[in-house]
Specification:
8-stranded mixed β-sheet, 5-stranded parallel β-sheet, alpha/beta, D-Amino Acid Oxidase, Chain A, domain 2, FAD/NAD(P)-binding domain, binds flavin-adenine dinucleotide, 22 strands, about 15% strand, single chain
């Protein structure tokens, strides 16, 4: 940054970004000038090195940005991964003796800007000449995602065929208020401090909470961030037409192609390598990582480093502590602190700006839920699935189109079937893979009178078969012989949604730190929201661009909340398409309601709407059907 210039751009032309440049050392853009450019090698990059701790999507993305944008030689990068495979939460595996397992699937959208920026350059798994982005786009164009039944009840009946939110004016105001509150006023607060039953009982909240796995006691701040981040998707919440999915499970479609691309560029991967601590030295405000302690295949060792080695650490995994059961065994409940969380604790002890993992670990009851991967082996089950989805899973196309939530399920169970095959070696004539999740694992089931967390895979299969309308007399036999179900208990899956205090998440690069970054969903990224693959990738891009001073802007978080067209559309969507004319604008005693409503109508029809109708605002309001102009005479 010299004389008010940064990368040849003048301060006055970077008005919203100057703060980023001054505070963080990178800047954002949303245009082709920046996104289309090819970066030049970062200064002295051939003499710099990188240690990436964790090969989830965040760690892999950091290595990719180092190679692609900073032009660091791949051989200078070492990735330490505690497990035997990469991917972290983005998993997908066949475990001999158990079966197919995915802890979850990923809903994605068109505006995961950093993700698509990267995936345009990573070859896809099916064809090395086609990028992940192109493969994904072509697939979703040819076979768009939407749900025929977003919510079911009464054992397989569509519970919301009208696709309405059914929000009262009061509920709309509650949601609007949270959406517009300042972050500082939401730290440490839960959503039930702001929403009343008026909102909690609306279809809107039902769609919202089950789509993202929110509970009423979760963070109000995170709900606000989601509302702002995905305001352009509001209408799509009712049928999930806003979502996109990969062709196969996330490991095969995303992780393996990234890993292969990195290995082709010479990046070193060390598995069974648990980094237990990173030690820092401090000089004044300057903090530098100087030693990485790592246990490889059970053997403790350490690596001395200096400012020329950048370290990237994914702090706190939401799939840490996951325990798998099997068809005949319930999963264990394990809340011991180890792995990424223990390492973060060790690092956090060294400086207050390194965050506070203990706040997120305090109450596993708030952060847990359970999933299950069910493989059906009996075609009779497909009949019940098709009755709900209107689609045969064997067609190879969209099936459920995102989750189907069972409204009258004690466990608040949702289930989904992605395009089959979901695994490269899966025989779709014999197997269909279903992913199930229960938000409230301490509740008792409707058919199986047990808490979900105490259930074997077979019992979870029974409960699911019951809710999809399988005849009662067939449930037990089909669950025993026609399914193989692997439960997956995840005690830390929503640590992202704990109503956290300010400072609990460290900055991606905390102030004064010269060579160490926190990556992933427990790092602070302005405006982006947690529990997304995009946030992990964005944090990686921020860290790499800062350390290597990459001469390119980071794509800004999609700005739909600042786009008046999306905001107006969201108002109408929230009201199930009703124009705003008769919204209660003023709170008045009931005896005054009628005259005030009449006054409001007169004011709108005679004064406000005729005036705006002469302007471009009127064009917009008409096009988006924000107001009903039928009573308006425009001269
Ligand atoms: C069930 C479920 C559903 C989800 N749904 C969606 C969705 O619909 N859309 C979406 O965008 N996102 C979704 N997510 C979230 C998304 O998958 C995660 O936020 C993202 O994958 C996290 O990636 P990460 O690399 O930041 O961390 P992780 O995936 O947690 O990876 C961290 C990796 O680092 C390793 N590691 C950590 N510490 C150490 C250490 N000290 N030494 C060595 N290795 C270490 C771990 O073993 C792990 O491999 C979902 C997640 C889950 C679990």
């Amino acid at each position: 940054m010299d004389n008010g210039f940064y990368n040849g751009l003048e301060r006055k032309n970077l008005i919203f970004n100057w703060h980023d440049i001054e505070e963080q050392g990178f800047y954002h853009s949303n245009g082709n000038y920046e996104s289309g450019c090819t970066t030049v090698p970062a200064e002295d990059i051939e003499n710099k090195h990188a240690i990436v701790i964790g090969s989830g999507i965040a760690g892999l993305a950091a290595a990719c940005f180092l190679v692609r944008d900073a032009k660091m030689p791949g051989k200078n990068i070492t990735v330490y991964e505690a497990r035997s495979v990469s991917g972290g939460s983005c998993d997908g595996m066949f475990i001999p003796g158990k079966g197919y397992v995915i802890s979850g699937g990923r809903e994605m959208d068109d505006h995961f800007e950093c993700m698509w920026d990267l995936f345009k350059d990573i070859p896809s798994c099916d064809d090395k000449n086609v990028s992940i982005l192109d493969a994904y786009k072509r697939l979703n164009e040819a076979d768009p995602n939407f749900s025929n039944c977003r919510v079911s009840e009464k054992r397989g009946q569509n519970a919301a065929p009208d696709k309405k939110f059914n929000m009262s004016d009061k509920a709309q105001m509650e949601v609007l208020k949270v959406m517009l509150m300042k972050n500082d006023d939401l730290y440490g607060k839960s959503i039930d401090q702001f929403f009343t039953d008026e909102t909690f009982n609306s279809n809107f909240w039902y769609y919202f909470k089950t789509m993202f796995a929110f509970k009423n006691e979760h963070s109000a701040l995170e709900v606000k961030l989601y509302l702002q981040r995905f305001i352009h998707h509001l209408e799509g919440f009712t049928d999930l037409s806003s979502l996109r999915f990969c062709k196969y499970n996330n490991y095969d479609s995303i992780i393996l192609p990234m890993e292969n691309w990195l290995k082709d560029h010479g990046v070193n991967f060390v598995y069974h390598a648990m980094v237990t601590n990173v030690l820092f030295t401090k000089e004044g405000n300057k903090k530098t990582a100087t030693k990485v302690e790592v246990t490889i295949e059970g053997k403790e060792t350490s690596v001395d480093i200096d400012e020329n080695t950048f370290v990237f650490f994914t702090n706190g995994s939401n799939t840490a502590n996951i325990k798998l059961g099997d068809h005949h065994t319930a999963p264990e409940w394990d809340t011991s602190v180890y792995g990424s969380w223990k390492t973060w604790q060790n690092i956090a002890k060294q400086d207050p700006s390194f965050g506070n993992p203990d706040e997120l670990l305090a109450d596993p009851e708030i952060t847990q839920w359970e999933s299950a991967t069910l493989t059906t082996m009996d075609n009779e089950i497909l009949k019940y699935i098709t009755n709900i989805t209107g689609r045969d899973p064997r067609d190879g196309k969209v099936v459920t189109g995102g989750i189907v939530t069972i409204k009258d399920s004690g466990w608040v169970m949702s289930w989904t079937i992605n395009r089959q095959k979901h695994f490269l070696d899966q025989d779709t004539e014999k197997n269909t893979i279903v992913w199930i999740y229960g938000l409230y694992t301490s509740n008792v089931g409707n058919y199986v009178k047990k808490r979900m967390r105490d259930c074997t895979g077979e019992e979870i299969a029974k409960e699911w078969l019951y809710h999809i309308g399988c005849p009662i007399e067939k449930i037990d036999e089909l669950a025993a012989k026609g399914c193989n179900c692997i439960p997956c208990m995840m005690p830390r899956v929503t640590t992202y949604f704990v109503s956290r205090s300010k400072g609990t998440y460290p900055e991606v690069v905390p102030a004064g730190v010269t060579n160490f970054a926190f990556l992933g969903n427990h790092a602070n990224v302005e405006r982006d929201c947690s529990f997304t693959t995009e946030k992990s990738i964005r944090s990686a891009m921020m860290a790499v661009y800062k350390f290597a001073k990459v001469n390119r802007a980071i794509p800004e978080v999609y700005g739909s909340i600042y786009d008046i067209r999306w905001v107006l559309k969201a108002f109408v969507d929230m009201r199930d398409g009703k124009p705003l004319n008769d919204t209660k604008m003023f709170e008045v005693p009931s005896f005054l309601e009628k005259p005030v409503a009449m006054g409001q109508k007169l004011l709108l029809d005679k004064v406000i709407l005729p005036a705006v109708d002469k302007t471009d605002i009127g064009v917009l309001l008409r096009r988006l059907k924000v107001f009903d102009f039928s009573g308006v005479k425009t001269k």
